[in-house]
Amino acid sequence: MQGVRELKGLDASVHVGPSHSQWGVVLAAAKSRQDLDKLFNATDGSFKAKGEGWKDEFWSEGQLLGFYNWFLKLATEAEKKNNRYQPKSAQFIQQLVRELMAELNADKGGRA
Q1: What distance in Å separates the CA atoms of residue 92 and residue 96, rounded to the nearest whole number?
Q2: What whole-number distance in Å separates Cα of residue 70 and Cα of residue 74?
Q3: Is 31 left (phi over 0), alpha (psi -120 to 50) or beta?
Q4: Total count of domains within the chain
Q5: Of 59, 106, 41, nearest in space to 67 by CA
Q6: The model scores a pTM over 0.85
Q7: 51 vs 17: CA distance, rounded Å
Q8: CB of 20 closer than 8 Å to CB of 27
Q9: 3-state class percentages of the chain: helix first, strand second, coil last, to nearest 5
Q10: Number of alpha helices (DSSP H) and beta strands (DSSP E) in the chain
Q11: 49 part of a folded domain
């Protein structure tokens, strides 16, 4: 979140990235492997590259990434198989999202 604000020249009070409720949708999907597969492979819905918050960009490892691509990279296997993303374990994704939501709650610009 700090990287997005720095890139855009925003102060800490401005919310950037996916909202608490958007992360909640991902967490809910992670509780069901079938829903998780649908989430990562859907062409519509709240989890999309150009979606509100998901498109906010920051520098990571020398490249400009949006939250969508950054999270997709962390939460799925390295490559698509059969033209579909393969999510890592549901437990891994649940823990990752819980940590992100805790960070969002602690962030001054976050809204719960």
Answers
A1: 6
A2: 6
A3: alpha
A4: 1
A5: 59
A6: no
A7: 10
A8: no
A9: 45, 10, 40
A10: 5, 2
A11: yes
> Residue 79 falls within a domain, yes or no?
yes
Closest CA to 30 of 83, 96, 78: 96
Which range of residues forms the domain containing residue 78? 2-106
Q: How many residues does the chain have?
A: 112
Please indicate, yes or no, if residue 111 is contained in any of the structural domains: no
Task: Write the pLDDT tens digit of every residue in 55-77.
Answer: 999 998 888 999 999 998 888 87
How far apart, in Å, are the Cα atoms of 17 and each of 35, 56, 89, 92? 22, 6, 24, 21
pLDDT interval class at 94 (50, 70, 90)? very high
Q: Which two tokens stand for residue 49?
A: 């590259």
Residue 95 is which amino acid? Q
Residue 50 falls within a domain, yes or no?
A: yes
